[in-house]
């Protein structure tokens, strides 16, 4: 029988606690605080197991699996802690500066079911062995050293988490002067440019990786999203990184509430946004996310992708996998279930809040050329969906393909904001492991109702479940 103090047993303890943490993090409100307190204990255990690794050339499959499994467990925990920071706007409990682990190797090697299959696969894959710290340093380096080639899908996923953490920590330590009499926490122009450059370099490397995967998938006759759910979530997180870089709108308390009506009130009470070129960069990311969603098909995403991807790494599909791989895969599965949902929620709220900001612009203020272009893009996207029909039932008989031109600009923009929320809300209605995801969608719907029926402007932020029409 294994000693509870050997490395394998300690790693299994970490994996078990990570599973409890992940379930609690997205589970019922009653266990959320327990989950949040558990992450500190989990981080201590991970630190005890060391957060550094070096390249070890080995021809033994089982040794490689143990080393890779240990790295993946710790890095997935790093991503969980960071996702917790993203969702709840709390400090991360594990920093990139202390996480000097090698980024994960290719999934083809990891999924090999035998020593023979692993040895056969090794000569056919090319990947860069690099630690998380070195990879992040490379991205932030000036002058630009070019993209990181040959990282795995999971390696790119971990790296974009590190960039988001970098943005969070910069914001906590930066104070930009908006006027001689006001100090507002924000990033300085040079900080923004440095991180924006790092994101561009990451994007180049990630796109090259996806192109290679696409070519390989086409040869095998696959039509899935290149890189599967890992790449899909990495794409969503890259959008979120741009949004966090250029805005300070964080609807974290809405997720904590676990209650759709309370969440809708929180969304509604978020302040209007300061217009400008930086904000427009964030809005363009949200518009692109909306465009991709509509092109893929709202109903298709809602009914198929959530369940399909949440089960893609299930051990039931491959009962021959080792216990180590099954354990790592389960934590990985829960991570992928929620990350895109959190990113989509933020995109939805940001875009709606921007439209409400534009709706509040007085007739004496002029929309910029860029703002007009963005508005035209949103109108075109919404016009391709069922939500192009005016939300107000009294207008439903009038030109169902377009927002009613008889309304003033402010009303049209409010209607557009409501439509955007309903489009995103529908994608949260599929089969999900966590009820929280459906609650997100319901919260967006209720927020849309608030925008549709502003009976009393002064009471919009105090609407109760009993006074709402669903």
Automatic annotation (TrEMBL):
Subcellular location: Nucleus
Cellular component, GO annotation: chromatin; nucleus
Domain Xylanolytic transcriptional activator regulatory: 6-202
GO biological process, alphabetically ordered: DNA-templated transcription
Database matches in Pfam families: Fungal_trans
Protein's UniProt keywords contain Zinc-finger: yes
An annotated Gene Ontology molecular function: zinc ion binding
UniProt KW keywords: Metal-binding, Nucleus, Repeat, Zinc, Zinc-finger
UniProt-recorded name of the protein: Xylanolytic transcriptional activator regulatory domain-containing protein
Species for this entry: Cytospora paraplurivora
């Amino acid at each position: 029988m294994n000693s509870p103090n050997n490395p394998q047993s300690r790693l299994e303890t970490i994996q078990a606690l990570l599973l409890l943490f992940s379930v609690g993090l997205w589970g019922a409100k009653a266990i959320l605080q327990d989950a949040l307190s558990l992450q500190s204990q989990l981080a201590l255990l991970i630190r005890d197991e060391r957060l550094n690794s070096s390249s070890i050339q080995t021809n033994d499959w089982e040794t490689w699996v143990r080393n890779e499994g240990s790295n993946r467990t710790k890095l997935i925990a790093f991503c969980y802690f960071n996702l917790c920071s993203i969702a709840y706007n709390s400090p991360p409990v594990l920093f990139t500066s202390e996480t000097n682990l090698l980024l994960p190797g290719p999934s083809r090697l990891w999924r090999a079911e035998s020593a023979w299959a692993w040895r056969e696969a090794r000569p056919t894959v090319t990947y860069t062995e690099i630690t998380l710290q070195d990879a992040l340093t490379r991205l932030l380096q000036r002058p630009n050293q070019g993209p990181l080639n040959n990282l795995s899908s999971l390696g790119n996923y971990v790296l974009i988490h590190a960039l988001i953490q970098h943005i969070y920590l910069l914001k906590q330590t930066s104070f930009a002067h908006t006027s001689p009499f006001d100090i507002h926490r924000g990033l300085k122009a040079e900080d923004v440019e440095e991180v924006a450059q790092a994101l561009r370099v990451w994007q180049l490397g990630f796109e090259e990786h996806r192109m290679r995967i696409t070519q390989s998938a086409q040869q095998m006759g696959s039509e899935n999203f290149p890189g599967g759910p890992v790449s899909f979530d990495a794409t969503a997180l890259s959008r979120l990184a741009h949004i966090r870089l250029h805005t300070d709108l964080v609807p974290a308390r809405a997720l904590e509430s676990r209650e759709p009506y309370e969440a809708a009130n929180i969304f509604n009470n978020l302040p209007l946004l300061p217009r400008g070129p930086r904000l427009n960069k964030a809005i363009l990311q949200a518009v692109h996310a909306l465009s991709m969603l509509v092109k893929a098909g709202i109903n298709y995403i809602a009914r198929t992708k959530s369940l399909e991807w949440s089960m893609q790494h299930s051990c039931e599909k491959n009962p021959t996998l080792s216990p180590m791989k099954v354990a790592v895969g389960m934590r990985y599965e829960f991570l992928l279930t929620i990350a895109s949902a959190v990113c989509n929620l933020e995109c939805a709220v940001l875009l709606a809040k921007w439209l409400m900001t534009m709706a509040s612009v007085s007739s004496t203020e002029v929309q910029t050329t860029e703002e007009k272009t963005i508005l035209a893009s949103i109108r075109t996207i919404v016009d391709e969906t069922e939500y192009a029909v005016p939300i107000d039932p009294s207008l439903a008989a009038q030109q169902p393909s377009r927002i009613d031109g008889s309304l003033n600009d402010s009303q049209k923009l409010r209607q557009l904001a409501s439509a955007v929320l309903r489009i995103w809300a529908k994608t949260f209605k599929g089969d999900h492991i966590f009820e929280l995801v459906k609650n997100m969608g319901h919260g967006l719907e209720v927020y849309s109702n608030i925008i549709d029926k502003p009976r009393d402007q002064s009471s919009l932020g105090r609407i109760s479940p009993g006074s709402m029409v669903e």
